[in-house]
Amino acid sequence: MFNKILIANRGEIACRVIKTAKKMGISTVAIYSDADKNALHVEMADEAIHIGPPPANQSYIVIDKVMQAIKDSGAQAVHPGYGFLSENAKFAEALSAQGVAFVGPPVGAIEKMGDKITSKKIAQDADVSTVPGYMGLIEDADEAVKISNQIGYPVMIKASAGGGGKGMRIAWNDQEAREGFQSSKNEAANSFGDDRIFIEKFITQPRHIEIQVLCDAHGNGIYLGERECSIQRRQQKVVEEAPSPFLDEATRKAMGEQAVALAKAVDYASAGTVEFIVDGERNFYFLEMNTRLQVEHPVTELITGVDLVEQMIRVANGEPLSISQDDVTLTGWAIENRLYAEDPYRGFLPSIGRLTRYRPPAETAAGPMLVNGKWMGDAPTGQAAVRNDTGVYEGGEISMYYDPMIAKLCTWAETREAAIDAMRVALDSFEVEGIGHNLPFLSAVMDHPKFISGDMTTAFIEEEYPEGFDGVQLKESELRQVAASAAAMHRVAEIRRTRVSGRMDNHERRVGADWVVSLQGTDFEVQIDADRDGSTVSFSDGTAVRVSSDWTPGDQLATLDIDGKLLALKVGKISGGFRIRSRGADMKVHVRTPRQAELARLMPEKVAPDTSKLLLCPMPGLIVKVEVEVGQEVQEGQALCSVEAMKMENILRAEKKSVVAKINASAGDSLAVDDVIMEFE
Q1: Which of 54, 468, 498, 540 could connect to 401 by a Cys-Cys bridge, CB 3.0–4.6 Å?
Q2: Where are the beta strands (DSSP E) in 55-113?
Q3: What is the rounded CA–CA span in Å between residue 151 and residue 155?
Q4: Average pLDDT over all residues of the chain
Q5: Any residues with CB less than 8 A from the CB of 551 and at least 6 apart, and which?
């Protein structure tokens, strides 16, 4: 076995590989750019080597720099993680030339299956069902439009060397095909150093289901079930689960056997993923093969008990697989939510900054979940597990140079319903401050009827949130729970305030019992009857709930028992109440005396400033191109400029017909959030 492995990657996947290597007794070497000198993967590794400036094309994907780090460290093998150089045949060849093992498939398999155009041709030759499309290279936007018309809209424009949603666009007409071709080409060049583009038919209402395969160099190959990856945004996966709620055993077996046959056709040896598009009749079509470890591999590990990273290392060491297809069993259900540094209230645009607070829920093996010492979930006898793969820490900085994913939160339970319930609790207990993030949106998905039923497609987000995400309106029963909790917490805060002031002797008796709790446009008149064990909160309609908690003022996470059911709330102090976040809702909750509530209703609402004549930068980023000039009349939907952030190019468009009055930025300028790019008459 190897003595030392270098991880040619960063972030959570580098940390993930380091954990398994250490478990196997293998020393680890990290590489890092200037932006990552204080990163978690650098701290976790046994040694670390600096490789250059922050941009990936000047550090992490520069083969010569990585090869020098390997030479300097004396590493015997390299695990590439995903992205970066993970599917780069030239890198694998360079390693082979130096006698260094590549923890991945052979060069030939990378070349044949890592390239989407070639892999489709091989799949067709192997009688694998494939999506209709144009497999040749496309020279320019005019040719892209011509081919798109021949295939028939809608079409998917994709980077041949792409992955992770980079270099991918859906086009529904000629204009979108032209713009999408150029944006995909630019993103592909920046992210992969390869700007080749191809086009295929976009199948509407599809499900994205992939098969995990594992092969060795001795001709053995197995599949480890499937992963459902249909909930995507901009073709980037957001929620994954294993197994799929849609497949039956016959389809699973057919897809698995086809995936293994395809892998064996190219002498594949390592972990890999064969992706399929599946329609409503369970017809499946080969999409692509990822010749690397997938981001979502933890859900497969949770239902099979197989450490895929360990298997990759053993295969790279020349060992045969120690498990056969008959040994593979799928136990329980696992769900993964990707925590992104993206602001859901700003159209999921990237957010950068310092993590002033980062407190994930505690990782647990199968068993009831503990949060702040309290059992969470409907019953402490239920079996559940929590796993959080991350590459950040509290006080660390999220930069603009890399992918915005900062953690992968996973739960496992015996049933899908229980796994979803465990995920709801885990999300509510996950504290992240300092940046915009998608935790509220993930909570909303976990409560969405379509997700709960398993009836979703890759169009889930655009269909269910066509106007974007603007938070969650809780049901009245849930609002009552939050109102009762806020009233009880307010009482505790008032007792503490009067005690600190020293103005009253019998603090508890002097704190009022009658309050009005206002949240999400609803007022609840409540009365609190407190005792040593908690409070009974009575509502004006005669109903009452029992609330108990050990929350103290200043705690940012509250766990409360509401009529025997535990609730997790993220709590912040505001004037006259709390900012409370729960189940995807972000609420200002005011707790007032009846007189204060009466006067508050008379206060005028603050009017937001008018920015309708301004184009504001929606994220920190780099201006790639300005498409218009001063004095030009623009139409609704017309492209105004392109902004690049976190390896994604975003086209900003006119919201209405207007005339450009002033342009404040030009190509190459770095802008912050809400900087004014241009003004209109």
Answers
A1: 54
A2: 77-79, 101-102
A3: 7
A4: 91
A5: 489, 492, 558, 559, 560, 571
Question: Minimal CA–CA distance to 387: which of 240, 230, 270?
Answer: 240
Q: Identify the three-state secondary structure at position 82.
A: coil
State phi, psi for 589 to the nearest 5 degrees.
-115, 115
Q: What's the pLDDT band for 393 if we cut at 50, 70, 90? A: very high
pLDDT of residue 373 exceeding 60: no
User: Is there a contact between 187 and 167 (Cβ–Cβ < 8 Å)?
Assistant: yes
What are the DSSP calls for 507-555, one per residue?
Answer: HHHHS-SEEEEEETTEEEEEEEEEETTEEEEEETTS-EEEEEE---TT-
630-670: pLDDT as tens digits: 999 999 889 999 998 776 788 899 988 999 999 999 999 99
Tell me if residue 360 falls in helix, strand or coil.
coil
Determine whether 211 is exposed, middle or buried from the number of CB atoms within 10 Å of its CB (0-12, 13-18, 19+): buried
Instruction: Read off the tokens for 341.
Output: 């540094």
- Strand ranges (DSSP E) for 341-451? 342-343, 349-350, 353-354, 357-359, 369-371, 374-376, 384-390, 397-398, 405-413, 431-433
Residues 209 and 226: their CA atoms lie apart, in Å, by 7
- Compute the distance between CA of residue 576 and CA of residue 468 in angstroms, rounded to an integer: 30
Q: Give the residue numbers annotated as catalytic, written as ranges.
A: 288
CB atoms near residue 661 (< 10 Å): 12
Phi, psi of 655 (to 5 degrees): -85, -20
Is it the case that residue 327 has pLDDT exceeding 80? yes
Please report the pLDDT score of residue 368 as a whole number: 46
Q: Is 637:653 a contact under the CB 8 Å cutoff?
A: yes
Q: Which of 560, 561, 570, 577 is nearest to 524 (CA)?
A: 577
User: Token pair 């892998």 is at which residue?
Assistant: 263
Cα distance between residue 243 and residue 224, in whole Å: 10
Radius of gyration of the chain, Cα coordinates, nearest whole angstrom: 27
pLDDT category, 443, cuts 50, 70, 90? very high
Residue whose entry in the numeric block shows the structure tokens 């017309």:
638
pLDDT tens-digit profile of 289-308? 999 999 999 999 999 999 99
Q: What is the pLDDT of residue 126?
A: 82
Burial string for 414-444 (b: 16+ CB within 10 Å, else e) reads: eebebbbbbbbbbbbbbbbbbbbbbbbbbbb
Q: How far apart are CA 85 and CA 34, in angstroms?
A: 19
What is the arithmetic mean of pLDDT over 332-337? Answer: 97
CB atoms within 10 A of CB 603: 7
State phi, psi for 194 to the nearest 5 degrees: -145, 115
